[in-house]
Write a structure and sequence with these properties.
The chain has 410 residues and is α/β, with parallel strands linked by helices. 40% of the residues lie in helices and 14% in strands. It is built from 16 helices and 11 strands. Strands 3-2-1-4-5-10-11 form a 7-stranded mixed β-sheet, sandwiched between helices.
């Protein structure tokens, strides 16, 4: 029987999933391996009848540049009970699986390590290599390397953001744009920078003060008033959904949202429109201040996850896919594949990224101390400063409350 590898995709989609799967498949097929694709993430490994597909070269070639994931994804995370009672060892033995390739985030990677350890205990050791992805760009890869999918999601998000800004300028309105980013504001800030939005709000900005609903709204009002002083009655603000994760329970209640939570304990932000919530809060504030501004909500979320990958991710994900073979051929296992900006392939181990106390991988945040960030804050964003106080009193009685630097305690 031919040696085989199994490959699955877990978590949520990111542009480049198919590029990784296609590149891994083409590479291993050319080395004489059989490639077995698993649908529904880890679900099949804990089921007596997994949904599988043999990936041949024509199929790999057909899918590699498409958006979405040909292998259906799942967020299923097995429990200890699943391992004890449901694990499908026969899938590995009957198919002569030598390597499990997983494509996903940190939860997917952690489960891959558990499976490899479990199989070793069962006297059937296999290699496991993980390919990390997230459009949030918040995995702490070395030297600022992006996670795959981010550049493509940003490209699509910026295309939507530019069109919205043209609408704002054309109609004389304001738009409140919400962008994905569970723990970090990379996507939101990237969109805001690419589109020259006069205000971006991300959780990292609140490093010296607690995030509250009032502070978020006041930052937007600051931009609206400043633009009025500049003779510009229109604009856009982009807000990262991650600010919800930092709000206290009391502040979340103030926003009027009751969240449900997924199996990993994360608020299911995808079930509510953050843009609608932010916009309603802004409208209420503007009405109280008697500032006549029309604002509209725009959500940038699921639209960018299955975007067709741009050239950057097509090249990057191809390198990651071929890198899986290189690490496997070198005898590496229990690691993630990493390709640096110079094209060097190396293993990256979870233990090197995990917090030793919690075992969790801390998110990579936007570096607000960087020149890039500071230049955007000081040169692109529009907000009230002390020099504007006298003129701003035409719109707000206490302009100090809407001073960007004072709101953030910077």
């Amino acid at each position: 029987m031919k040696d085989a590898i199994a490959i699955l995709t877990g978590g949520g989609p990111a542009p480049g999933m198919n590029t990784v799967v296609g590149s891994v498949s083409k590479t291993f097929l050319s080395k004489g391996y059989r490639v077995v694709g698993l649908h529904e993430g880890y679900t099949g490994l804990f089921s007596p009848s997994p949904r599988t597909v043999d990936i041949d070269y024509p199929l790999a070639d057909d899918i590699f540049n498409r958006g979405g994931s040909y292998l259906q994804m799942s967020r299923f995370k097995p429990t200890d009970k699943n391992f004890a009672e449901d694990f499908n060892l026969d899938f590995f033995t009957s198919n002569n699986i030598k390597l499990l390739v997983t494509v996903g985030g940190d939860d997917t990677a952690s489960t891959a390590n558990r499976i490899a350890k479990f199989l070793t205990e069962k006297k059937y050791p296999i290699a496991n290599i993980h390919v990390p992805k997230t459009i949030d760009n918040d995995l702490p890869l070395p030297n600022g390397a992006p996670t795959f999918g981010y550049e493509s999601a940003l490209d699509k998000g910026a295309a939507i953001g530019r069109a919205v800004y043209v609408d704002a300028r054309t109609s004389g309105n304001w738009f409140v744009v919400a962008a994905m980013g569970r723990s970090a504001g990379h996507l939101a800030f990237g969109i805001g920078t690419a589109c020259h939005y006069p205000m971006s709000v991300i959780p990292e900005m609140f490093d010296r003060t607690e995030i509250t609903v009032d502070k978020i709204v006041n930052l937007v009002v600051s931009s609206i008033v400043k633009r009025k002083l500049m003779g510009m009655g229109y604009g856009c603000v982009v807000i990262s959904e991650g600010v919800f994760h930092e709000l206290s329970e009391e502040e979340i209640k103030k926003s009027g949202v009751n969240f449900s939570y997924d199996d990993h304990g994360h608020p299911e932000l995808g079930k509510v429109s953050k843009a609608h919530i932010f916009n309603e809060m802004l409208e209420k504030k503007l009405k109280a201040l008697n500032i006549r501004v029309k604002s509209r909500p725009v959500e940038i979320g699921y639209e960018v996850r299955c975007q067709t990958p741009v050239a950057f991710d097509l090249v990057y994900c191809s390198s990651l896919g071929m890198g899986v073979w290189q690490l496997f051929d070198e005898g590496k296992t229990g690691c993630m594949v990493f390709v640096d900006r110079a094209g060097k392939v190396s293993p990256l181990y979870l233990k090197d990224l995990q917090d030793p106390a919690t075992g969790k991988i801390p998110p990579r945040l936007v570096d607000i101390s960087s020149d890039d960030f500071g230049n955007v804050i000081h040169n692109i964003l529009c907000y009230i400063t002390p020099a504007d106080y006298e003129a701003a009193r035409k719109y707000v009685a206490n302009p100090e409350e809407y001073d960007f630097m004072k709101i953030l305690n910077w």
